Amino acid sequence: MEQCGITSSKTVLVFLNLIFWAAAGILSYVGAYVFITYDDYDHFFEDVYTLIPAVVIIAVGTLLFIIGLIGCCATIRESRCGLAAFVIILLLVFITEVGGVVLGYIYRAKVEDEVDHSIWKVYNGYNGTNPDAASRAIDYVQRQLRCCGIHNYSDWENTVWFKQTKNNSVPLSCCKAAFSNCTGSLTRPMDLYSEGCEALVVKKLQEIMMYVIWAALAFAAIQLLGMLCACVVLCRRSRDPAYELLITGGTYA
């Protein structure tokens, strides 16, 4: 029965290492997605440290690929040194992921304060005649999130751009897609998105941060199982170096 349990642990461990390779790609994708999305919303942030959880996820994804390679080799060869190194590296990555989760929760809570602190400055710097990066960001957000202004379209009346144009209109990015003849005029509010952008930007960014958190938690659980299986094999290897190898003809380290 004990031998069966050891063989099962080794088989599970090999399978988990294959999962680590897949996880490396998934985590790298999640981290890259956060970076790309952040680039669309970065004008609403002043704290660049909000990207730290994404950096952690990409670093962990890269390490998982290396871990998977080490784990497969160590498991197949029944290498005591390799399995010990595998457990130690997994433990370090696990601690890093836990740190990423904690940072994710911290910055997720700070998103609303960050956006609230900077969004008016961004909107007041809008220049519809010669759009700069911040202006393009506002137009992008209003079209993508189907919103207008900070709390509603009336916020545009207090901006420098609105007072300079003197045409009683908001940017065309406030126009609903269904109205092709919309000019942004405040005399036709039914043509404009009624919801403000601040709440939607906060919601979007918090959702992105949750992707990071859940991805880290999911693979941290897999790593715990990997460490458990490796410890079972390593302990058995230390007590009885004559137990059956996973692959016949393998050599001990």
UniProtKB/TrEMBL annotation:
One Pfam family of this chain: Tetraspanin
Primary localisation category: membrane
SUPFAM superfamilies: Tetraspanin
Transmembrane segments: 12-36, 48-71, 83-107, 208-235
Gene Ontology cellular-component terms listed: plasma membrane
Keyword Translocase: no
Subcellular location: Membrane
Membrane topology summary: Multi-pass membrane protein
Keywords noted in UniProt: Glycoprotein, Membrane, Transmembrane, Transmembrane helix
Domain of life assignment: Eukaryota
InterPro entries: Tetraspanin/Peripherin, Tetraspanin_animals, Tetraspanin_CS, Tetraspanin_EC2_sf
Coiled-coil parts of chain: none
Job of this protein: Regulates the proliferation and migration of oligodendrocytes, a process essential for normal myelination and repair.
Membership in a protein family: Belongs to the tetraspanin (TM4SF) family.
Quaternary structure annotation from Swiss-Prot or TrEMBL: Interacts with claudin-11/CLDN11 and integrins.
Protein name, as recorded: Tetraspanin
Source species: Nyctibius grandis (Great potoo)
UniProt lineage: Eukaryota, Metazoa, Chordata, Craniata, Vertebrata
The gene coding this protein: Tspan3_1
